[in-house]
Design brief:
By secondary structure, the chain is α/β, with parallel strands linked by helices. It has helices at 17-20, 48-60, 71-74, 103-116, 120-130, 158-169, 191-202, 217-222, 233-237, 252-276, and strands at residues 4-7, 15-16, 32-38, 41-47, 62-65, 86-89, 94-97, 100-101, 136-142, 146-151, 173-178, 181-186, 207-210, 225-228, 244-246. Helix 2 (48-60) packs parallel to helix 10.
Length: 292
């Protein structure tokens, strides 16, 4: 059975100029490879070592990028190795197959959001009324699925974020703060559901996952094994779960470490799968309660 590796991208495997500042105290700068250009400027990177590791991983497992980026934003990324057959975009709102959004999957997601959550327009209006222009730089909507703000992080009041999270929770939405972006996302809109669909279609497993934000928590909980870097929302809040390893590395070197962990686990999974041919079987993705 082929292992399925589902990973968040931004601040997990790839890093912007600003996120590179999260790196290590070691003064030796790693060699970087640009994987995204936007409006004629380099935007996102991984290390050259990570690029080689990712290409190797793509040859040994079913690699599935799982990102909050919209399909258009994901399309700017050029990862090493062959283009992934499957990709999860818009936090699970889109499932790309050979680069094309699966219309049937998107329709299923939209139907669930309409049935279980307050409408996007209500959330947008609330953000417009309550977000102070002093620290709000941009209001954005992603594919009519969720909303986010670009903020001045140093000026953002923590109390306002907590009040927003409580208001959103009552309406079936969640809040995530990642760098300078504050996301309001419907609770049923999850990366794990889309990854589970990929596993169903392909028969791949076990599932390995990595991510740094609260929007990745469901993916990590649903995986057989997971990793989070030493930076990001999950690290800052002390989030943990039994099958998730908290790594000490921060910044771009965390991406290298995560890929090494994936490769090591893929080798172990292959051995387990071989044993399963005559004995036990590898489990399917599993869910679980949120960890504190």
């Amino acid at each position: 059975m082929t292992p399925l590796v589902a990973s968040d991208l931004d601040r997990t495997l790839v890093y912007s100029d600003a996120a590179l500042g999260l790196t290590m105290p070691d003064p030796r700068a790693p060699r970087l490879l640009c994987v995204e250009v936007y409006e004629g400027r380099p935007l996102s990177y991984l290390t050259e070592t990570a690029a080689g590791l990712l290409a190797e991983l793509a040859g040994r497992a079913l690699f599935v990028p799982a990102t909050t980026r919209t399909p258009a934003q994901y399309g700017r990324i050029r990862l090493p190795g062959p283009p992934p057959r499957y990709a999860v975009c818009a936090n699970g709102g889109h499932l790309l197959v050979d680069g094309v959004p699966d219309a049937g999957w998107h329709a299923r997601v939209r139907a669930r959001l309409d049935a279980e959550c307050a409408p996007l327009a209500e959330v947008r209006d609330h953000l417009a009324r309550t977000a102070d222009p002093e620290w709000t730089r941009k209001h954005r909507v992603a594919d009519d699925l969720f909303a986010y703000l670009v903020v001045e992080r140093a000026l953002l009041p923590g109390e306002w974020v907590r009040e927003l999270a409580a208001w959103a929770e009552e309406r079936g939405w969640g809040v995530s703060l990642q760098g300078r972006k504050l996301y309001a996302v419907p609770r049923p809109l999850t990366k794990s559901a889309a990854v589970r669909e990929v596993a169903r279609r392909t028969g791949a497993g076990p599932v390995l996952a990595a991510g740094d934000s609260l929007l990745d928590a469901d993916l990590l909980l649903a995986a057989d094994r997971g990793w989070r870097p030493g930076h990001g929302e999950l690290a800052d809040s002390g989030w943990h779960a039994p099958a998730v390893t908290a790594l000490p590395e921060r910044g771009v070197l965390a991406g290298e470490r995560i890929l090494r962990e994936f490769l090591g686990a893929v080798g172990t999974a292959g051995a387990v799968s071989a044993a399963g041919a005559t004995g036990g079987a590898v489990g399917a993705p599993r869910g679980g309660p949120a960890a504190g």
